[in-house]
Amino acid sequence: MNNHWMPEGTVYGTLMNFHREHALWTPRMSEAPYKAPPQAPVLHIKTANTFTAAGHSIALPAGQPVAVAATLGLVMGDTGVAGAVLFNDLAIVHESYYRPPVKFQCVDGFLGIGPECVPLQRLGGLDGLNGLQLELRINGVHRQTTALAELVRDAATLLADVNEFMTLRLGDVLMLGSDCLPDGSRPLVHAGDTVEISATGFKPAVHSFVAEDKP
Fold first, then answer.
1. Cβ atoms of 173 and 43 closer than 8 Å
2. Domains in the chain, please, with CATH?
């Protein structure tokens, strides 16, 4: 029996919510078609077909580079945020970052889910998340540290800004976003790799990767 936690509602991701990536994209924010920096959070959706439970493998489509990204998700309860979960938000590498086609973000299996939802109270509330660091390792080798202190909108601010234009319901998840590497890219994953995402107070989210089996 699989007792790992799984989302019960809609999962939303947040783009450009880390200072480094935001700064890298600032020169292009005034270009067409947008012609101005975004004023509200920029969100994308992870549909239910993307959900992969902790400890399970994720199939990679042939011939397409796939990036992995450590992030933390806020899980909605009856009266606000109930807890937080580690996620590995995968995407096929693409150029249209502001409005990426669903086919790049919502490939089957492309959201690795941590094994547990940690109660928010245990983490010190929303403000307690600001001191967390997410560690990403591929095949045991450290590849990236993501410090939530570097968020453009911290957890409380992001949640308030999103609630200005949409209602998050019981079971929904709002991911805080993921940071890029110094060159603006994200770590790539290949068939045969294993990715582990960890943070203090959480059991690690571990997923292996295999080649897609298509005739």
1. no
2. 11-211 (3.90.850.10)
Report residue 161 as tokens. 């800004």
Q: What is the DSSP string of the chain?
A: -------SS-EEEEES-BHHHHHHHGGGTTSTTT-S--SS-EEEEE-GGGEE-TT-EEEE-TT--EE--EEEEEEEETTEEEEEEEEEE-EE--S--SS--HHHH--TT-EEE-S--EEGGGGTHHHHGGG-EEEEEETTEEEEEEEGGGBSS-HHHHHHHHHTT-PPPTT-EEE---PPPTTS---EE-TT-EEEEE-TTS--EEEEEEE----
pTM: 0.92
Two structure tokens written together for 74: 């806020």
**162-214 pLDDT, tens per residue?**
999 999 999 999 999 999 999 999 999 999 999 999 999 999 999 999 998 86
Residue that has been written with the tokens 């991911």 in this structure: 175
User: What single-letter amino acid sits at 7?
Assistant: P
57-60 vs 205-211, strand pairing mode: parallel
Cis peptide bond upstream of 187, omega within 30: no
Give the whole-angstrom CA distance, residue 212 versus residue 147. 32
